[in-house]
Every structure is written in C-alpha cells, then in structure tokens.
Amino acid sequence: MLTTRRVDAYHALTVVAPGIAERYRPGHFVSVAVGGAYTSMVTRRAFFIHDVKADYGGTVELVFTTGGPGTAWLAERRARDTLDLVGPLGRPFPLPRDPANCVLVGSDYGSAVLFPLADALLARGCRVDFVIGGAEAERVFGAMRARRMAETTTLTTEDGSLGLRGTVTDALPSVIADTRADAVYACAPMATLRAVTAVAMEFDIPVQVAVEESMACGIGVCMTCVLPVIGEDGATRMVRACAEGPVFRGERVRFEDVGTIPFDALGAPGGGARHVS
Amino acid sequence: MLTTRRVDAYHALTVVAPGIAERYRPGHFVSVAVGGAYTSMVTRRAFFIHDVKADYGGTVELVFTTGGPGTAWLAERRARDTLDLVGPLGRPFPLPRDPANCVLVGSDYGSAVLFPLADALLARGCRVDFVIGGAEAERVFGAMRARRMAETTTLTTEDGSLGLRGTVTDALPSVIADTRADAVYACAPMATLRAVTAVAMEFDIPVQVAVEESMACGIGVCMTCVLPVIGEDGATRMVRACAEGPVFRGERVRFEDVGTIPFDALGAPGGGARHVS
Amino acid sequence: MSVDMRTFLAHVELANPITTAAGCASSGRELAQFFDLHRLGALTTRSITMAPRAGRPTPRMAETPSGMLNSVGLQGPGIDAFLERELPWLAQRGIRTIVSIGGGTVAEYSELARRLADAPGVTALEINLSCPNMEDRGRVFAREGSAAAEVIASVRSIMRYDVPVVAKLAPDVADIVSVARACVDAGADALSMINNPLGMAIDTEALRPSLAAVTGGLSGPAVLPLAVRCVWQVHAALPGVPLIGMGGVMSGKDAFQFVLAGACVVGVGTALFHDPYACLRIERELEDLLRARGLQRLADAVGLAHRPPGSAPRHLMVDSEESIP
Amino acid sequence: MSVDMRTFLAHVELANPITTAAGCASSGRELAQFFDLHRLGALTTRSITMAPRAGRPTPRMAETPSGMLNSVGLQGPGIDAFLERELPWLAQRGIRTIVSIGGGTVAEYSELARRLADAPGVTALEINLSCPNMEDRGRVFAREGSAAAEVIASVRSIMRYDVPVVAKLAPDVADIVSVARACVDAGADALSMINNPLGMAIDTEALRPSLAAVTGGLSGPAVLPLAVRCVWQVHAALPGVPLIGMGGVMSGKDAFQFVLAGACVVGVGTALFHDPYACLRIERELEDLLRARGLQRLADAVGLAHRPPGSAPRHLMVDSEESIP
Ligand SMILES: Cc1cc2nc3c(=O)[nH]c(=O)nc-3n(C[C@H](O)[C@H](O)[C@H](O)COP(=O)(O)OP(=O)(O)OC[C@H]3O[C@@H](n4cnc5c(N)ncnc54)[C@H](O)[C@@H]3O)c2cc1C
Ligand SMILES: Cc1cc2nc3c(=O)[nH]c(=O)nc-3n(C[C@H](O)[C@H](O)[C@H](O)COP(=O)(O)OP(=O)(O)OC[C@H]3O[C@@H](n4cnc5c(N)ncnc54)[C@H](O)[C@@H]3O)c2cc1C
Ligand SMILES: Cc1cc2nc3c(=O)[nH]c(=O)nc-3n(C[C@H](O)[C@H](O)[C@H](O)COP(=O)(O)O)c2cc1C
Ligand SMILES: Cc1cc2nc3c(=O)[nH]c(=O)nc-3n(C[C@H](O)[C@H](O)[C@H](O)COP(=O)(O)O)c2cc1C
Ligand code: FES
Ligand code: FES
Fold first, then answer.
1. Per-residue pLDDT tens for C71-88?
2. pLDDT band at C316 (very low <50, low <70, confident <90, very high)
3. CATH of A101-212, one of 3.40.50.720, 3.40.50.80, 3.40.50.1100, 3.20.20.10
4. d(Cα B126, Cα A153) in Å, to the nearest integer?
C-alpha cells in the first residue's frame, strides 16, 4: 500500500497492484481482505477502482466511506501496510463505438468510478457531462475533477449546501435535454439507479448502471449477489452482480423486484421448479 | 503502552497501568486481550509481571516469547498502541517473615518473575542466589541483572553455550548446599518445577513454585486451569491455578498427576460422585 | 430518556435482562471483586450436582476461531457445600440468583430440587439438560424430548410454585422446537438456550485431541448465529414462553439480536472470561441501542423482529407517551 | 522428501485429498480463470436439481463472527443444462468431478441418479441430504436416518457400481453417528460432512432478520470444531468408511485436523470466497505439515489422532524406507 488520504467525507487508498492496474477497465472492482491475520471477518469487501496510475509498475486507488467494521479497519491502514486485493473483477462499462454525448451520474462514492470512465470516453471523442450528488457538500465526491474534465458539471445536495438542492435524478432530465445526450452512465445506490434508469428510458436513451449487491466472493462462485435481470431472450434470470455485472443496461434490471424472486424468473418457485432446500 | 523491546530471545513490553502497578506483588500475573477489534481470538493470554516502576503513575513490564498467534500479535505492538490488561491476578509469592537464604530458580521467561521477588526478599534482609537456565544462551533471561542482585548466580544451558551444560535442576543441589538455603522459589515449565520440588524436598526445605496452566479467564470463574493440589487437611482437590495459584507450595502439587483427575481427589469419578456431563 | 429495562422471567421481575450464564461466573464471589452483583438482572450459578465433582482432566480448554471449547465437566463442591456456603452468601446480600442444577438421572434432579425447594434465595431454578442420562446409555437429556420432559415434570412438581423452573436446551438436535414444546408441556415456566454444542479440536503438533476429554462444549461468538436461530424458532412456535437467550453474546448488539428474536433475558458466558465487567457493559450498550431506536421499554423489543417490517417500532413511537409506565 | 498425497474415495483414486465443497465453486469455470483445475483432488459441483432453480430472495448473505450465513437455496440451471453444458466442459478436460445432487423427494433424487448414471465424467456422486423432504412436511432428509437411507438406497441401486455414492450429512442432529450408519447400511460408499448448520442473524438497524429467507446455513471457521467432532465421531464408529471432511477449512492446519480425525478427503468451501487459490495453498500447507511430522503418506495420517499418543508416528518413521511407494 502506498498512500492513504482523506477526501472530504471519504477515505482514499492507493495500492501498488501492477497485475490489477494492467488489466483494468472502467467499472471494474476489487475485493479486499479486511481485519488482518486471525480476524473474525471472513468475507472480503468490494470496492470500485477509482483510479489507475502507471507509477511503481501500476497502482490502483479506492475511495470509500466507513460504515461497518471492515471499512473502519481499512480506514486505519497506514502507508506501507500491505493489503490483500483480488481483481480486477466484474464486467466493465461498455464504451460507445462512435463519439457520443454521455452524461455520467454518480452519487456518494459512486461517482469515484466515473472518472476513469470519463477519461476513456473522452479518448474516444465523446462529450462528457457530469451530474454528481450527495446528501451534503462534503459527500459530493470529485466535483473539482469533474469540472476540469467535463463540458458541464451539475452538483446536487439534499440539504442544498452545494449546487442544486435535491438528488441527481432531479437534475438529470434538464442535463440530458441540454446536452442532447446519447447515453447515460450511472453508479449510485439501487434506488437512485432505478430513478436514473426511469429518466433515461423517458428520453429513450440507453443507460448503463453499476450496481452494488451484498457479495461473499466477488468471483462468481457463491451465488449470493444475484438480482433479476431480463436477458436478450426476454426471460428474467437471477444473475450475479459480480460476474454478469456489476454493470448492466438499466432497462434490463428489474429494480422494483430486487430482493425478491419474481414469479416469472427462470426457476422461480411455482415456475416449474420443485421447491427444494 | 509505553515501550517495546527485544531482550535476547524475548520480547519485553512496558505498559502504563497505575491500577495494576499499585496493587502488585511479586508472583502476580496479568491477562492481555490479543488480536484487536474483531479478532477471532476470544481468550486472553496470561503473563507474569516482570517489573513494576513508578514512572507515569505506574508501569508494568511483561516478558514473553512468541509461539502462537496471540504472542505473535503482541510482538508486533508498537510504542503508543493501547493494550487491554486485567490484573494483578493470582496469589503472589509468600515472603519469609524473618531473613532467610533463598534460592531463586527460573528457566526461560520464567526467571522474569523472580527479579521483583528478589527485590522484595532483599528488602527483608534475605540472602538471594539465582539459578537461571534455558535451552541456549539467548534463552537465559536476566543473567546480568541476577548477577547484580544476587550473592551468586548460576547459569545453565542445555547446549552448554552459557554457564553449565544441563538444566537448572542439575545445578540446584550444589547451590542449595553451598548457600545453606532455607527456601527455594521457582518459575519454569511443569516438568522443571517437578524436578526442582524433588530436589528441595530432598534437602527438606520449603519450595514455592509458580505454575502455568491453560487459562480461559484468569479470574477464577471458568474452572479450566485446575491441577491436583493437596490441602492442609491432606485431601487432594482440583484447584484453580489462577485463583488459588499460580504460586503453590511445591510439595503440595501432585505434579505426576497433572493432566489427570487422581482417583483420590475430592469429587473424582468413583470417589463417590456420580458421573454426570 | 431512560429506557425501562425491567423484564419478567415468568412471574419474577428482574431489574434488567442481563444474567451470567451457568458455569461462567462460578458462584458469584469472584465477580463481586469487580462490581456490585446487584447490578445484574440475575446471577446464574454453575450447575450444582448432588455429590462434589472434580470434573474432567486438563487440558480443559482450547481456543477455536471466535470461540473456545471447554470440558470442565461440572466441577463443583456438590449440593451440601452449595447450600452451606455459596447460596447463603448470595441470599444474604439479596442477589437475584438463578440456581442451575445438573444430574445423571431423573431421581438426581428431583433430589436436587427437593434440597433447593426450601432454600431461601432461589429466584429461579435452571435445569441443565445437557447431562448424560445414566439410564439411557449416557444419551444427553436435552437431545431427547421425552427424557427432558420427564426431568422437568418431576422437578416442577417438587419445586415451590413461585420459583420458575427453566429448562436449558442444547442445539445439538434435529428439531429444537419439539424439545422445547416437550419441556413446556411438562411444566417448564421458561426456557433457556443454548447450551454448548459439542465440538472438538486436534492439536496438530501432538497429533492428538487438544482436550484431555477429547470433545468439549463450544461457546463464544462462533455459536451466536446458531443460538439466535434457536431462540427465533422457539419464540415463533411458543410465543408466550419466556426465553433466556445466550450463546456468544459479547456486546449490546449481540444481546439485542436475542431480544429481537424473542428473548426477554440474555445470558452472558464466555464474554466474562474476556471482560469481567462484560455484563454491565452489555446492559449499558443494550440500553443505548434501545434508546437510539426509540424503544422506551425493553419489553417492547422482545420478539420485535418477528413482526412485519416497519410497523412495530413506528407504532411504539406514536404510543410513546402512553407506554411510559 | 515429497509426500505421497494420493488418497482413495472408496475405490476411486484422487491425486490429492483437496476438493471444493458443493455450492462453493459453482461448476468450476469461474475458478479455472485462477488456476488449473487438474490440480484439485476433485472438483465438487453445486447441488444439481431436476428443474432450474432461481434460489431464494436477496439478501442471501450475512457475515457472522468467523463465519457467514447463506441462503442461496440451490440456485442452478437444472439437470438438463448441467448435462448439456457444465458436465461436458469438465469431462472434456478430464477434471475429476464429484457431482452433487439435491431433491425434494426420493423419486427426484432417483431420477437425477438415472440421468447421471450414463453421463461420462462423474467421478463420484454426492447426495446433498440437507434438502427438505416434501413428503415429510419439509423435514430435512439429513435429520432423519430412515429418510436419508431411503434416498441413498435408491440412488445406489441406480448409479453405476463403479461410481461411489457419497452421503452428505448435516450436523443439526442429536446423533450424527446413527444417521451415518443408516446411510452406510443403505449402501453409501463414503460419507461427507458437514453441510451447514442452520443459523440466523438479525439486523439491529432494520430490526429484521438479515437474510430475506430469515434463516441460512452457517459456514466458515466458526463451524470447524463442530465439523471436526462429527468426523471424529463417525470415524470412531465406522472406521472403514471413507470420509470427506469439511467445514471451516481455511488452512493446511485445519485440513490436517480433519485428516487426523479420520477424513481421507477434505472439502474447502467458504475459504474459496476469500481466496480463489485456497485449495492449492491448503494442499501445499497440508503437505508441508505432513512432511514436518515425518509422515510420508497422507494415508498414514488418516485417523491418526485416534491412536494412542506417540505410537503411530514413531512407527512410521522406522518404516519410512519401506513405505515409499
Ligand atoms: C461492486 C461493489 C463496489 C463497491 N464499491 C464501493 C466503493 O467504491 N466505495 C465504497 O465505499 N463502498 C463500495 N461498495 C460497498 C462496500 O463493499 C461496503 O460498504 C463494505 O463492504 C461494507 O463493509 P463493512 O465491514 O464496513 O460493513 P458491514 O455492514 O459490517 O459488512 C458486513 C458484510 O456485508 C457486506 N456489505 C455491507 N454493505 C455492503 C454494500 N453496500 N455492498 C455490498 N456488500 C456490502 C460486506 O461486504 C460484508 O460482507 C461496493 C460494493 C460493491 C458490491
Ligand atoms: C500464570 C501464567 C503466566 C505466564 N507468564 C508468561 C510470561 O511471563 N511470558 C511468557 O512468554 N508466557 C507466559 N505464559 C504463557 C503464555 O500465556 C502463553 O505462551 C500464551 O498464552 C500463548 O499464546 P499464543 O496465542 O501465542 O499461543 P496458542 O498456543 O495459540 O494459544 C492458544 C490458547 O492456549 C493458551 N495457552 C497456550 N500456551 C499456554 C501456556 N503455556 N500457558 C497457559 N496458556 C497457554 C492461550 O492462552 C490461548 O488461550 C504464562 C501463562 C500463565 C498461565
Ligand atoms: C467454561 C464453561 C462452563 C460452563 N458450565 C456450564 C454449566 O455448569 N451449566 C450449564 O448449564 N451451562 C454451562 N456452560 C454453558 C454456558 O452457560 C452457555 O450456555 C454457553 O457457554 C453459551 O454462552 P456463551 O457463548 O456466552 O458462553 C458453560 C460454558 C462454559 C464456557
Ligand atoms: C454459498 C454456499 C453454497 C452452498 N451450496 C451447497 C450446495 O449446493 N450443496 C451442498 O451440499 N452444500 C452446499 N454448501 C455447503 C458446503 O458445501 C459446505 O458443506 C459447508 O459450507 C462447510 O464448509 P465451509 O465452511 O468450508 O464452507 C454451500 C455453502 C455455501 C457457503
Ligand atoms: S459475490 Fe459470489 S457469485 Fe457474486
Ligand atoms: S482460568 Fe478460569 S478459573 Fe482459572
């Protein structure tokens, strides 16, 4: 581990991880072992990769907020401690083949994952506009950097302490309209992603969302991180956020049914499958 | 925690603990929580108090060797880390009322507990002689300090790398004879204590031993640390090393039966008690 | 705002829901060096047997991931010494005392109950059913509903009506609800769970079992999810029966899990080995959690997680003025 | 000195004793991104069911002290898709594969066996008995010796004689030995233990169960002492029966405990979620431990902790020249 710093309400960790940096594409995440030797915490914690740099053979930066014991432990790490990472994991954001106008929407630490995406989009000649929000000013991550990169940057806070009062979804329609957006990319809590998707669908433009689900493995073997997603064939399947995701086309995700097994999902009870274990 | 240092093969930790320092008497031990927050190690580790100083309101020093995960964790502590101690625990060494010639026998880290005892004995006008041993030179703890305090100091190592080749028990008879010892004090592994006790009994002088038993609580509530000890009334009881000990009169300890329930112990199966759970 | 922490174990009121777990506080005196035992909801004694017992050989303890194994084997001085020295010490001080008893036959349990029936200072009697039944090839009572019920029925018939009889269950069964039901049908006024599931560790240096007794009881945080599940299942099946929940409680949050699952009393065992003040700390933390959730009475939280999401706590908030006693 | 790590699961030889635990390595492809699956003693698939299954609602996972709860509910594509896509992928690569199956009725298990009887690439069949028996009010097969035996007898009669049938047992029973014996009497060639004991966690913020399915299976280091005890008891009672030991194996030392207790194969589950390379690391660590103890063959260590102290290893040292194969 290289450095650790505070960014407003967040912690940022930079880790030397050439193997991960090399294969990284925007939207990837890593899983981090927490608690050290002889810890009682057996599951890894998932974090989006915020930044990748070429220094020291390749570094990755994570941005996180503390909640439970795992993130609290991470926040106590110091420069030169070692950290156990697995990654890059998941399917990254798909990029448009041709230049397009893209609105990038992030709330809380969700916006962290959007900056390398913006870099990639800009490299393809896309126009990038940001909508970034948080509950309060210090929970709005990356406003300065967004302003430097994007054509326009719209900030929102729920308490009105920075930018517009409200949520990113409130601000989104006018940004889409103003920028004549061709696509939306979003990373935020489920409820926000659901609302962002609804807005994009209203404008009839594609939306790519990066979701968060409780994950035990992050590599596709445990089947704990599933959510109902509609496939190419129109059938709903319980797919893994870590392996088929974390990035999905928003309109394919059945947000209203997350946390349930929709009756028409493949293999749903009553849908023909016997109800064992 | 104040300081941490290496002493030959051992680690020494000094901890600011006025409450413990104040009530301390030689032979007391403390129990230390290991592993930090969210550790999987639920039992405390027991350590004899090696030294108590008045600095900072009162400090205690522990000397230990690393074996398993708990002591490995302790060895990684740094100055200014906090440490969670309970103590002082156990019954200390009884001191002779009148000046007497005392031989203090210690092997490995066991000798650490003998130095404050020597101080107390010297304060009462006793003569003190040390027999200190270890497997090899760097496992002989406190030779210098012993030399400064004691009338004579005999060192033993099993590989002959320092002092006499052999064990403390090999050296003991001649020290007892030479010093016309009135009493022996010992702290060492069980097998050594057994042998030391046998020597003292041969010379017909009292011997106080500080024993080590696997302890879950250290405060007398869990009953895991018992060993067979003969009481005033001649009856053998399974008594707690943490509460009735760790210091016992050597001839009262049924060393050969440690790890068993002697058939004639109070409440032994067949000795009248029904055999439940 | 102070939270009303009083709770009822059957008809007996306790000032707060935290008790020591049987066998983890000896007979109380050791802990009294650290704090005033009156601050406990109740003290539970180690399981008292008829005759003095020397217990099992050592090593009796092995650490396991987030837990420990013990094979103490009910070491204790027997009922005579208990009645002579230990119980009076507690009774004279007016310390709420749940006396735990253990036996090898129904007759032995019954005899223990008889000896305790007239003893002053017995707040409740807890029947440790995790003892081998000498009349059934050593099969543990708690693993067999009918054997457990026989013990409870006999003890209940002997014990004074105003002393609740608490059946202590073990999780090593296919269906804890059926054992619970058998005990309640036999007259148990309350149930306590869980006793230690049977575990084992092998010393990979010595190539032998770590415990002299080979197997031992597993306790500590490792068993918390098993214990919460047992309390949940039994409360769901027998919602009217007071439950003492225990197994791995190290914090107020853990205790709160048991309360939400349906326990009105929470036992603290292994945590005492780590922190002699654990009961006080846990009680305070539990109170803080209740307060932070807007719960003004412990009683309102008992079994709350069984109710449909959202409904109950909100209701309590609205009723808050009324529910202050 | 290299240690002979070969082992036999009934008459089937495995290159080493480490296998993935059912449901913890999906159908193998995901792990293949990390290492060559041929380095496993065997890969065990998730439990295959007749119809596709969507599993239980989320959240399906909760962390507990040194463990985790899961309520995946056997999500999977069903036997058709398994035979079409998953098994051939493994078979073509020659990966030793233990196929796990789960069903709700004896008929369903039998039908699964029939479908697998002629499929190439089935090294052994593991019967997940921790499924609710639809014909007995949802009581889990593994909790009832006779129901478990019925499944095993039927599957054994259908399966090709040269494919070992392994009965997978759960620890939530009063007497695991009696269930084990029932399965062996019914024709099980080997036994595997332990499946997850049932546990639960309550979210003290939401005041609701942490898992959508309320209860879930406990896995990880927390269950290690329970699992070692089960293997020990069953090996003591049925010393001739090959055992797959699992539950909380995170290191070679944990695996060694199972071997010393009597397992000839060791399953690794939850550790894979933490470390995709866990199986390889554990195998290497186990080999190092055996070597350090002077044990030249894994087979010599199986059940070693049951023998009187000291005797066995010393004997092996003396025989060392002979015992090199
Ligand atoms: C793909 C992905 C990317 C993520 N990226 C970030 C990021 O860049 N920055 C950031 O701050 N957080 C991120 N999260 C959320 C982060 O994983 C959780 O905040 C963290 O696991 C909480 O751990 P804890 O010990 O503090 O909390 P606890 O609640 O004690 O954790 C207990 C268990 O629940 C799981 N868990 C808890 N909250 C979440 C959550 N929101 N999502 C998934 N699992 C959870 C933990 O992994 C752990 O297994 C991401 C989650 C996913 C799935
Ligand atoms: C009264 C007393 C005083 C002691 N004083 C010292 C001292 O001054 N210096 C020193 O280096 N060591 C001392 N010990 C031994 C020390 O407690 C153990 O070395 C230590 O607990 C090992 O912990 P671990 O995690 O490294 O090893 P592990 O073997 O992993 O420990 C696992 C469990 O076994 C217990 N345990 C292991 N070895 C011992 C042992 N020898 N005695 C008691 N419990 C044990 C641990 O407490 C723990 O619960 C003393 C022990 C006792 C009982
Ligand atoms: C050392 C020790 C001794 C115990 N002795 C008894 C006992 O005498 N009677 C009894 O009913 N339970 C006994 N138990 C079980 C505890 O009362 C409790 O049910 C169990 O340990 C779970 O709680 P915990 O995880 O908080 O320790 C004992 C537990 C331990 C650890
Ligand atoms: C997420 C998850 C899914 C599981 N799925 C299955 C399964 O499909 N069939 C089965 O027999 N066991 C299943 N198990 C149980 C494991 O195979 C294993 O018996 C248990 O988890 C103990 O091992 P561990 O502690 O190493 O995980 C599953 C366990 C987990 C954690
Ligand atoms: S987290 Fe394990 S499959 Fe997705
Ligand atoms: S260590 Fe608990 S009684 Fe001695």
1. 999 999 999 999 999 999
2. very low
3. 3.40.50.80
4. 83
